[in-house]
Design goal:
single chain, mainly alpha, Rhomboid-like fold, two-stranded antiparallel sheet, 8 helices
Length: 224
Amino acid sequence: MELNNSNKPKLNITKLLTPLLFPVVLWVVHLLSLLFNEDLSKLGLLPRNLVGLLGIFTSPLIHADFSHLISNTIPLIILGWIIFSFYPKVSYILFLFIYFVTGLLVWIFARQVFHIGASGVVYGFVSFLFFSGIFRRDNKSISLALVITFLYGGLVWGMIPGWKGISWESHLFGAITGLVAAYLFRKIDPPSKKYDWEDEPDDFDVDKLEVSYDPEKNKFNNLN
């Protein structure tokens, strides 16, 4: 007997591997900096400084230590997988939008210290997934928003000023950028899906039911 493989679900390798690319780049950059004993913090983002403009491109790639790197790697993989799986049409432009707009806002408004790390991207992803549930109002987006709230709701504290050694501005502007992206891209993904049973006529429609009462038989008769 020959089996037809056409009906078997295909594993989309691209969706699995693509969210890993950015975290892999982060690890390569960090390991190379250790290998060559090079301090890359000078490539961080320095607000309102022309040289610091380079940091819009480079600062998310730089991390202070392994703890800093790991704390960003895990959510980037999880959130990246969710976005590339459930919002495939907007995923690439969303990443670029959050990456560069967050950096630009930090360069314009943040404290004049060096800002490094990909936490702004993490906050952008979390914010996008949460507010997509609000703007789209479809069951899938709302469900994702609830999951994200459960997993990463505590990140809101990272946007409060005063945390030592933390770029709360990157967190705040990442979240704002994610909110804007959720609104701008609200009609792109996911495609609306209508189930077959939603198109089926109702077997029992109260509004169209016509009955009469027969006092002799003490019962209602259906006139339809």
